[in-house]
Amino acid sequence: RVTEFCDLLFGDELPTRAQLISTFRLRVPQQPLPYEDSGTYSVSAAAVMDAIRAHNTPWGAAGGLKERLRGVDLCAALRLCAGQAPPAPPVAGGSPYFCEHADCQEVWTTESVGALAQYLEGRVQALRAGDRPIVEVGAGPGRLAALLNRTGLISTRVIATDIQDFGHGYPQEAIEQSAALRKYQPAIIMSSWMPVRHDWSKQWRAMPFVSEYVLIG
Asked: What is the pTM of this model?
């Protein structure tokens, strides 16, 4: 089950919604689950957090982490990934350890990435953006941009940018946000899980070449 969990969340092949439901034997909620910052954690959640803190490494490269998580409730782990259980303890910025060290803020599926790609292509055509790339800022390791490009549904590139090089094997440019936008002058900007209490969109709205930005999370 742990191997399936890691493969579904971090693998190069996207799972379908049905695969997620089948693997985790749960109903994928239509609405976000409540976030209860009560300061108490289930045994399962604590075990997941302890394992992540101990290894301080992305899940995809953590063979030992898989061993430590044997027998852990993976439903709890999935909820932690979605930010639906409180962090134990919080890290800088208030993000759960799972999000910080696994570089995973969202569980992507074939359906969700396909729908996002179709939307973006529709906007590229409507805005007559031509071959100007879509720029993802705060892209982390660049997995989402890679998945979108792989669909073949978008007539231009999606370029993943972040202030640091995450080195996870996906195309990702280490560049400061303002410099990236000046370099590529995109009509469309995308950001998935912008940091809490930060609003990057103010500077985007001041850039004459930006027609739209898409926020996820």
From this structure: 0.68
